[in-house]
Amino acid sequence: MEPILAVPKPKKERKVKGMVEIDFEKCKGCELCTIACKEEALFLSKNINLKGYRYVVALNENCTGCVNCALVCPDGVITVYRTNPKKKISEHTENVKPDVRQIISTPVYSDLLNMDYI
Fold it and tell me: Is 110 helix (H, G, I), strand (E, B) or coil?
């Protein structure tokens, strides 16, 4: 009887992609981020940093920018950047002016009522 080999599933192509930056010298290799990463984009390196810990390395091709790794990192050494997909311009938004942004240096209560929240 021949053994059954496990074939890894190919990753789905996603519109949103991410990039992880890790401060290798501050990473203690606790591996909480590798557990939190559902895309298997993080793994433990075989090298050690100046503190003597094996640090985490990112495989950015698999990263979706979900930020789970940065949220669970106890030392805050992970920064995640997310790329936005290109938005299609519809025929209804061609004549719309770009967003007008105001800076309110000393807000009063009436200004806070008029603000739009995302």
Answer: helix
Total domain count, the chain: 1
Q: The domain containing residue 57 runs over which residues?
A: 17-83
Token output for 98: 């770009």
Q: Are 65 and 80 in contact (CB under 8 A)?
A: yes
Dump pLDDT digits (tens) for 82-117: 886 665 555 555 555 555 555 555 556 666 666 665
Judge contact between 81 and 65, C-beta under 8 A.
yes
We report the CATH number of the domain holding residue 34 as 3.30.70.20
* pLDDT value at 8 more than 70: no
Q: Token pair for residue 4?
A: 């059954």
For residue 44, what pLDDT is reported?
93
